[in-house]
Amino acid sequence: xxxxxxxxxxxxxxxxxxxxxxxxxxxxxxxxxxxxxxxxxxxxxxxxxxxxxxxxxxxxxxxxxxxxxxxxxxxxxxxxxxxxxxxxxxxxxxxxxxxxxxxxxxxxxxxxxxxxxxxxxxxxxxxxxxxxxxxxxxxxxxxxxxxxxxxxxxxx
Length: 156
Ligand SMILES: CC(C)(COP(=O)(O)OP(=O)(O)OC[C@H]1O[C@@H](n2cnc3c(N)ncnc32)[C@H](O)[C@@H]1OP(=O)(O)O)[C@@H](O)C(=O)NCCC(=O)NCCS
Prior knowledge:
The protein is α+β, with helices and mostly antiparallel strands and 156 residues long. It is built from five helices and seven strands, in the order βαααβββαβαββ. It has helices at residues 8-13, 15-25, 30-46, 94-108, 123-130, and strands at 2-6, 49-56, 59-68, 77-85, 113-118, 134-140, 143-149.
């Protein structure tokens, strides 16, 4: 398995596979899935989003996004969004690998304050708890909000 950091061009090349992955996770029509990834592509091109994907034998099996906060007081913040693993590839550690890869990318960008939303009682909640995320006040719809502060390498 490889973890890829997708740029806008890669989003174009892989748009069909990205749509397949989203339609596996959500009850969406292809047109809606393609529109979703077009929005993500624009955010990637604008530099406000990092998109990482897990690939096995040339097929995408999972993705995660890092939404980079653009507020002046949020330069160290990133929101982990849409962590998704294909239903046929779950419980093999791929979700954990993707989340750790997103953390490494956040660290490289100097963003140590991570947040994400997970459904209470879900597998995602178990996963993020295992990786050191702690529940914080607030909610995102029916989801609870979790936070983690990354340990950044000290400047020499
Ligand atoms: C949540 C999700 C990304 C997990 O991906 P995954 O590749 O299956 O996760 P992993 O195999 O890395 O799981 C690591 C650990 O998390 C926990 N976990 C993951 N899925 C679980 C589930 N369905 N039930 C209970 N625990 C679960 C377990 O502790 C697991 O370790 P184990 O398999 O040794 O018991 C995947 O189920 C998914 O895409 N769900 C739909 C979208 C979603 O809910 N995204 C989360 C947004 S935060």
